[in-house]
Specification:
binds flavin-adenine dinucleotide, 14 helices, 32% helix, alpha/beta, disordered N terminus, globular, 484 residues, FAD/NAD(P)-binding domain, 20% strand
Length: 484
C-alpha cells in the first residue's frame, strides 16, 4: 500500500442512530456520474502525477456524485444495485478477471431475503434454490421424496439429538442455501453494462486534496473518486488504510464444498448439523442437484495454504472418515475443484477503540469521503450464517442514506455516512461477538463439556425462535426513481 491515512484526514465518529428512513428522490442524471477511463496511466506515485492530472480533474469537478465501489463481491454488487435503484450510478472496481465463479454456497436467512426482495432479485433466486423450512416450494414436486422440512442436530455417531421445524418454532423464517456464483451473477445482471470494471485491482489509495480520493490500480490506471465505498472483503486494503487492524484468526478452519448429483440429490430439504469434539460438520441441500457441506475443525494455526484440490478434499475426508455415511457420500460427490479451505477470522469493533468505518479528508470544502461495507468492515465467523446477510443489509442501509444526501452539500454526505456507521455498528458488533461465542461453544473438545452440550444443551435448552431473533431485519423499499 503506497499511502497511509494522512494527518489531514478526519475519522468520523458516528452520530446517534436515526430510524432508517425512506430514501429521498433524486433526479436521474442523463450523464453518467463516472466513467472508468484511466485518468492517467502508467504512473506509480500519486504525488508525481498530480500536476499532470490537473486538467482532467478540473473536468471532474462538476461530478459531485462520483461514487466508486472497490470490490465486486456480495457487498459491492448489492451496494451498486441499491444505489442504482435510487438513481445513483457507481463504478465497481473488481480485481478478478470475472465474477467469482468458485466458492460454494451461502445460507441466507430471512434478513438476507428481505434485502434481496428490496433489490428486486429475490424471486429469481428463489426459483433456483430450495427452501429449507416452512412453506412448500415448487421444487418439491420435482423431487417427490423430499419430506417435511426441518433442522436436525445430531451427534457424531449419527444419533438424532433434536429436530426442529422452523414453522413450529420460528414461523416466517426463510432459509435457503444459495450458490455464491449465482447470487453474484444475478446481482450483476441487474446493473447496467460496463458498471463493473474487471481486472482492476486497487493497489493504493490516497486523499487528493479537495478533488477527491485517488485510487491507483495494479496496472497503473488511476481513478479519482469523490466517494469511495470499500467492499473489498476480509483483507480489505481500504480498511487497512483507514486504520483497521488485521482480522484475527479464531482457532478453527472450515472446509466447504458442493456435492453434485446430476440425476437428482436424495436428501431431505433440511439443515443438518453433526457435532463432534473440536470438529463439526453440516450439510444442506441447495437445489435438486446440489448439496452444500462444511466441516469446521480446531487448528492452532491456519496452516499452510494447499493449492492441490484433490489434497484438500482428502484432508477434509480424513477428518470425518468415521462420520455418518450421508456426509461422506456428499463429500465424495463433490468435484475436487469446488472444495475450499478457509481459516476463520473476525474483527471486533470495540467502541472507542476501533476506527469508524467512515473517513473524510479535512480540507475546507473537501469532498473526499471513504466508507467500508461488509467483510471489509466487520468480518465475522460464519457460525450464525450472517456475514453475507449483513453485507446485504449494509448495502441497502448505506444506499438509503447516501442517495438522498448526494443532492445536498458534502457535509450532508458525511452526516449520512455517519448515520450509516452508527446504525450498522449497533447491528454488526453484537452479531460478530455472538457468532464468535457460538463458534467457541460448538468447537469444544472437552468430553464432559461435549456430553453436556449433546445431552442437555441441545435437547433441552436450545430454543430456535430466540436463537434466530437476529434474522429479523426491516428495511424499507428502495423506490425506483422516476426518470424526468
Ligand atoms: C466458511 C464460511 C462460510 C460462510 N457461510 C456464510 C453463510 O452461510 N451465510 C452468510 O450470510 N455468510 C456466510 N459467510 C460469510 C460471507 O462469505 C461473507 O460475509 C461475504 O462474502 C462478504 O461479502 P463481501 O462482498 O463483503 O466480501 P467478498 O465476498 O470477499 O468480496 C470482496 C470482493 O472484493 C474484491 N477485492 C478484494 N481486494 C480487492 C482489491 N484490492 N481491488 C479490487 N477488488 C478487490 C474480491 O475479489 C471480491 O470480489 C461465510 C464465510 C465463510 C468463510
Amino acid at each position: 500500500m503506497a499511502s497511509s491515512i494522512s494527518s489531514s484526514a478526519l475519522l468520523l465518529r458516528p452520530r446517534p442512530p436515526p430510524l432508517l428512513r425512506r430514501a429521498g428522490r433524486l433526479r436521474r442524471s442523463s450523464k453518467p456520474y463516472f466513467t472508468l477511463s484511466p485518468i492517467f496511466a502508467s504512473s506509480s506515485s500519486s504525488s508525481t502525477t498530480a500536476p499532470l492530472m490537473k486538467k482532467e480533474r478540473e473536468k471532474e469537478k462538476e461530478k459531485e456524485e462520483e461514487v466508486v465501489i472497490v470490490g465486486g463481491g456480495i457487498a459491492g454488487l448489492a451496494t451498486a444495485l441499491a444505489l442504482r435503484r435510487l438513481g445513483v450510478a457507481a463504478a465497481v472496481l473488481e480485481q478478478g478477471a470475472s465474477l467469482r465463479s468458485g466458492g460454494t454456497s451461502l445460507t441466507l436467512s430471512t434478513n438476507g431475503w428481505r434485502v434481496l426482495d428490496v433489490l428486486g432479485v429475490a424471486d429469481e433466486l428463489r426459483a433456483q434454490f430450495l427452501q429449507i423450512q416452512g412453506f412448500c416450494f415448487s421444487i418439491r414436486e420435482a423431487i417427490p421424496e423430499i419430506k417435511p422440512k426441518r433442522l436436525v442436530m445430531r451427534s457424531q455417531d449419527g444419533r438424532e439429538l433434536r429436530s426442529f421445524r422452523f414453522e413450529d418454532e420460528a414461523p416466517g423464517q426463510e432459509v435457503r442455501a444459495v450458490e455464491r456464483r449465482v447470487l453474484l451473477e444475478t446481482l450483476a445482471g441487474k446493473l447496467p453494462p460496463n458498471t463493473i470494471s474487471f481486472s482492476s485491482r486497487l493497489r493504493s489509495i490516497a486523499w487528493q486534496g479537495k478533488d477527491g480520493t485517488l485510487l491507483e490500480l495494479d496496472d497503473g490506471r488511476q481513478v479519482l473518486a469523490k466517494i469511495v465505498i470499500g467492499c473489498d472483503g476480509v483483507n480489505s486494503p481500504i480498511a487497512k488504510w483507514m486504520g483497521f487492524p488485521e482480522p484475527k484468526y479464531v482457532g478453527h478452519c472450515a472446509f466447504r464444498g458442493l456435492g453434485q448429483y446430476p440425476e437428482g440429490q436424495p436428501y431431505e430439504s433440511k439443515v443438518n448439523y453433526i457435532y463432534g469434539r473440536g470438529l463439526r460438520a453440516g450439510f444442506v441441500p441447495v437445489s435438486p442437484t446440489k448439496v452444500y457441506w462444511f466441516i469446521c475443525f480446531n487448528s492452532q494455526s491456519p496452516g499452510p495454504r494447499t493449492t492441490d484440490p484433490s489434497a484438500l478434499k482428502k484432508e477434509a475426508l480424513d477428518l470425518v472418515q468415521t462420520w455418518p455415511q450421508e456426509l461422506l457420500d456428499i463429500m465424495r460427490n463433490t468435484p475436487d475443484d469446488t472444495v475450499v479451505k478457509t481459516p476463520l477470522v473476525d474483527r471486533w469493533l470495540w467502541p472507542g477503540l476501533s476506527p469508524p468505518p467512515v473517513a473524510a479528508a479535512l480540507n475546507g470544502s473537501s469532498s473526499a469521503v471513504a466508507v467500508v461495507v461488509g467483510d471489509a468492515w466487520h468480518p465475522m465467523t460464519p457460525n450464525l450464517g450472517q456475514g453475507a446477510c449483513c453485507a446485504l443489509e449494509d448495502a441497502v442501509v448505506l444506499a438509503g442514506k447516501l442517495a438522498p444526501a448526494l443532492t445536498g452539500s458534502r457535509g450532508a454526505v458525511v452526516a449520512a455516512l455517519g448515520e450509516y456507521a452508527q446504525e450498522r455498528w449497533a447491528r454488526v458488533f453484537p452479531l460478530t461477538a455472538r457468532a464468535s461465542l457460538v463458534g467457541s461453544l460448538l468447537q469444544w473438545e472437552d468430553p464432559i463439556v461435549c456430553a453436556f452440550r449433546n445431552e442437555v444443551m441441545i435437547p433441552r435448552l436450545v430454543r430456535l425462535g430466540p436463537f434466530l431473533e437476529h434474522t429479523n431485519f426491516e428495511c424499507e423499499l428502495l423506490e425506483p426513481i422516476a426518470s424526468n
